[in-house]
Specification:
The chain is of the alpha+beta class. It is 25% helix and 44% strand. The protein contains three helices and eight strands.
């Protein structure tokens, strides 16, 4: 009887210890800590085009959600491209299928943003540019 009581007390002590550990971890975990409000840049490129400089930053937010931020700084004599909206296309690196062209949101003059949920995880490339000139950057979407 004495060994059974000792085993029960020991088991209860371990259960309480594990329960307190799990409860403390879950209680102190802030949901805002698991999703970054300001995620770090996953991939970026800066490309000199004939009319100016194109900067593209890609943020892989998780769950196949991706944000692309585009800034175009036109040359002083590049009047036509200064007001144009760039073309954006997401495509898988290893697959030969049509790409995804998300709608762009104008943030300010020369700065656009697009949020897209990609259909599958893997290696992707985003192309941003005007006509035949574009900047490309590869990234992993998970």
């Amino acid at each position: 009887m004495g060994t059974r009581a000792l085993a029960v007390i020991l088991a209860l002590g371990v259960a309480v210890f594990v329960g307190v550990f799990i409860w403390t971890t879950a209680w102190t975990l802030d949901p805002r800590d698991t999703t970054s409000a300001d995620p770090s840049v996953t991939a970026k490129v800066s490309e000199a085009l004939s009319d100016g400089r194109m900067d593209v930053q890609v943020y892989a937010l998780g769950g196949r959600d991706v944000r692309v931020e585009i800034q175009f700084m036109p040359d002083t004599d590049a009047g036509a491209a200064a007001g144009m909206r760039p073309d954006v296309n997401f495509a898988m690196v290893d697959m030969h299928m049509d790409g995804i062209a998300p709608p762009l949101q104008l943030v300010e003059a020369g700065v656009w943003r697009a949020d897209v949920k990609l259909p599958m995880a893997g290696r992707w490339v985003v192309s941003v540019g005007f006509g035949e000139e574009f900047a490309e950057v590869e990234f992993d979407a998970r």
